[in-house]
Amino acid sequence: MRVVMAMMLGVALLASGCASKVEYGDPQARETVTPDFGSSDLQMIATKMVDDMMVFPPVVELTRNRRPVLFVDRVKNKTSEHVDTESITDTIQSRLINSGKFRFVDMTVVDRVRQQLEYQQDSGMVDQSTAAQMGRQIGAEFMLYGNLSSIVKRDNSTKDVYYKFTLKLLNIQSGIIEWSGEKEIRKTRSRSLFGL
Amino acid sequence: MEAGRVWGNKKHWLMLVLPLWLAGCAMGSLFQPYPSQAQSWVHPASGRNASIVQHLERAGKGRDGVLYLQELGLLQQRLGNDTASRTVFADVINHYEHTDAQALIRVTGLASQTGALLINDNALPYRAPDYERIFTYSYQALNYWAAGDVTGTAVELRRAAQAQRMAEQHREKELAKADEDTAPLDLSQYQGYFEGLDLAAGAVKSSFQNAWTFYLSALFWEAHGEYNDALVDYKKALELHPEADWLKADVQRVSRALDGQRQRGIGTVAVIYEQGDVPARQEVSLPIPTPHGLFLVAFPSYSVTSGSVARPLTFHVAGQSAQTRVLADVGALAARNLREQAPGMLIRQVLRATGKYNLQKKANDDFGGAGAFLTQLFNLISEQADRRSWLGLPAYAQAGRITVPVGEQQVLLSGPGGDASVTVPVVERGLTLIHVTERAGRLVARVLPVQEGPL
């Protein structure tokens, strides 16, 4: 009897150990599953870029009495990983908008906006007194663009990845780079000696 | 004492049952040589594609999963299913990353090592050698290229370059270490058995460096005006083929482009050509010395006659013609890779031969003729050389390029596998890539999206 009980207990323990489970986690928690580009890197980059830009004296001066209009060009992925750089610029854009200091135009939806404008103007379905007018959009004054590059080194027991994110704010009319920010990240993974 | 005897008897029975059980079940390539399995996907019979894909997907979940997935990724690409191929190759690359990150000494690894010592080397999980990894990245780059994803292509080409660089560093360290240690086993006593292997391996300088991949990425970087990267890759290809004047011309052209001298009104048409099938490993019988005398064991090798002959593909465009040249002799890479692994394999064979002899002797002592017969049967069946390698790869990876005036151009391809004609767009300073594969005497050509402008 005691043997049967012990076996049942053993099976129960084994079964509970194998069952997969789902848990909610803190999205801001440090993620170190692999040395590849991850959520923590994205957050660190966005925070650093926004903080740097908001305290840069000429930018502070620029946004004292008005909210300049920006557009995000793109961040070139020059790494050896398939990184969604749009996701990084989206986060930066959201934080800048929420600071109340900047406004943005979105170049990724131009075609759909044009379609909507044409619908409002030409379809005959929309009350013209409320229809949005063509040619009234505000031109962007500044452009945000940058690079994400990486250097990977690896030997039998270690993998070292260095990321460098560069973001620039360019005055479209004068061609002057008004601000430039950089964030470096280094990650190292060591192989354990023993494992399953 | 009594209990001890019972347990001892059990062990005897286990010894008899184990060989039968092992012989009865076909576990991957443990008892069935890989090349005979691979025939069905290297040259798929028409109408059987769906079942082969299913079979490979299933096998991809097993112990040698990465090998089957490599085959599946390439098969899907050749069937024109680029998206499926991309997913499969992404899995393969994840697998590489996972293997590289595993602990150095693993419990499961020790288990399969023990299995390999009892049965044969096929019990070890398949580990993709560097030359196969580099091909995976190149094929994945072509998948992104075909989908028009320039950033994705660039990422995969960078990974291919990284894999080559790391393999080189790794090899340098190993060589330095080998110089310090004394050679663990003398291969020279088996010289006659490895004649074909030595001959095939002698055609290349290392077991992984792949000028074809370097050339492919050089073409890509040049088309996007990244002349610095292009120059590095052309030079690396030239390093591997120092006699190739046409590669010297590439280096000179890109050097001039770096200095701002760029020709106008012309574009590039390049052909990458995968010819033939990479030879499969053959099995040779090798006499291994054990304390009880010589023991004949099965060992993988390459035969002198197994390689096919490299044949160029000629392409004619706008009144000019050019030929593709061999940039990677894949059979030689595979042979060189096996040559590097041979000492380790021999050590395992000596241990295994001793173990198997002891098993046979014990069975003979305890069970007489029947026991000896059964263990002999097990030894015979289990004596299989490790003949696993990626067999979907071509025998030769070739490439060639030509500059022609911009506009629509007709390209006539003619090779030993027949002729093909394609009409392609040529843009100023752009690159039009034609990917040609020759399988079983048939030419299959596809035109990839034109690459031009900054990245």
From TrEMBL, chain A:
Q: Name one Pfam family in it.
A: LpoB
Q: Does the keyword Cell cycle apply?
A: no
What name is this protein filed under?
Penicillin-binding protein activator LpoB
- Name the InterPro entries for this protein: LpoB (IPR014094)
Under the heading PANTHER family, the entry gives: PENICILLIN-BINDING PROTEIN ACTIVATOR LPOB
Record keywords: Signal
Instruction: Give a yes or no for keyword Signal in this entry.
Output: yes
* Signal peptide limits: 1-21
